[in-house]
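User: Fold this one for me? It's Hexosyltransferase.
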Amino acid sequence: MQLHVSPSMRSLTISSNNGFIDLMKIKVAARHISYRTLFHTILILAFLLPFVFILTAIVTLEGVNKCSSFDCLGRRLGPRLLGRVDDSGQRLVKDFYKILNQVNAEEIPDGIKLPDSFNQLVSKMKNNQYDAKTFALMLRAMMEKLEREIRESKFSELMNKHFAASSIPKGLYCLSLRLTDEYSSNAHARRQLPSPELLPVLSNNSYHHFVLSTDNILAASVVVNSAVQSSLRPEKIVFHIITDKKTYAGMHAWFALNPVSPAIVEVKGVHQFDWLTRENVPVLEAVENHHGIRNYYHGNHLAGANLSNTTPRTFASKLQARSPKYISLLNHLRIYLPELFPNLDKVVFLDDDIVIQRDLSPLWEIDLWGKVNGAVETCKGEDEWVMSKHFRNYFNFSHPLIAKHLDPDECAWAYGMNIFDLRTWRKTNIRETYHYWLKENLKSNLTMWKLGTLPPALIAFKGHIHPIDPSWHMLGLGYQSKTNIEKAKRAAVIHYNGQSKPWLQIGFEHLRPFWTKIHVLLFLQGGSWLILLVFGIRCENTRDSDVFPIDVAGVGRQ
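Assistant: Here's what I get for Hexosyltransferase.
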């Protein structure tokens, strides 16, 4: 069959291909269509067809189901050609948000039975053909249940850690008992410290005097021995160790049987200081005998606590503030140093949870510029837990007395390693200020601050602080496991402040070797009592798991 169009575009003839007569001849009404119009039409079609092709390809690729007919393709292309987009996906998301808002505003029914896993939830939804709202409600109930369980677990962990940090490991307890027994039966353990010919050195200001207040024999040994091992002139070191009455015999026996010559060690109990009377220390007696204080530090730490509105970090801080050590006389003794050592001009006070890694003799050459306390400031570091502390972190500024006298943005400083100019101190009223604020806090039922002995010291030493370089004193090894090891190696003093002490099982394993290597080095030098440390202090009926562990192999890693 052939199709013939006349040149004038006025007739159309259809004929067969076998030469027969025309089957049909159609005459078209006369219309004036110019060649220019036809050319423009063809040009437009040539321009549009590629876009139609591309759009068709995109629709085909985007579609989940292939279109098998022009009708399907038309339904999909039509809205796009008209500038319309299928928004069914957006409507679905909006509907989903609407359902979530509805579920969030509703109360979860009591007694609702929740699946134990997401797979069980999906299976339950399929079997019961629940709608989207029911699914969202069940999912919310499951998430809230898991959040409660996680919070309860975290608070339980913090409580257990608090009890572990406040307790005495059996190994340390047995060490104290064994040394006390040695003190009563061994004359060498009772020998005078220091020997009579060295007594004048105890008040000689040409020596470097360290003061350590502790009832932990093992910790005291680490502090003293690390100072001696790190010193370039150990013969200039004098240690004044102050302990309580129950620990005095064991502490004395330890240093009598394990001398640290050429350094000099003096061990005294608080009962041996004539100045420490109730008249001179009235607040401490009040703190120890005050019923509310005793209950605060030794009572039920969960009673009256609203855990639903408390973060784990805040709860941990409150538990730390309730450590019984904060009502111990040993913890307050540093405020009485000028009276306890009336003949000394300058001392370095050390906490018992530190390790000395560098010669500290340059500390005596630091000019404090008329200040009393040379300390590392704790407001200029990057971490939020240790080195970003201001007064607002320690005091309750909603209390009118605190708000009136203190600046919340004032920089805090650290105890642990402090240079005290005792001559300048004696000219101030620091001790009286300390007593005044302790009394005010007791009157307010501990509403002015909660955290131990540092807050009243921050007030008492206000205006008397001389900042020293932070490399002298690195803090936080008992708080954060992500301590920079290389930075810790370079620090003159590392401080295990926090609950995770290195002599406890909750101590951080990778930070413990800084502490344990001191005893291992002493063991290599010899010493009968050090064998007990390395292989464990055993009591009668003591299991191996109760013995304090020292990782000898771990020393080489530091």
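One thing worth pointing out: The first strand starts at residue 2 and ends at 5.
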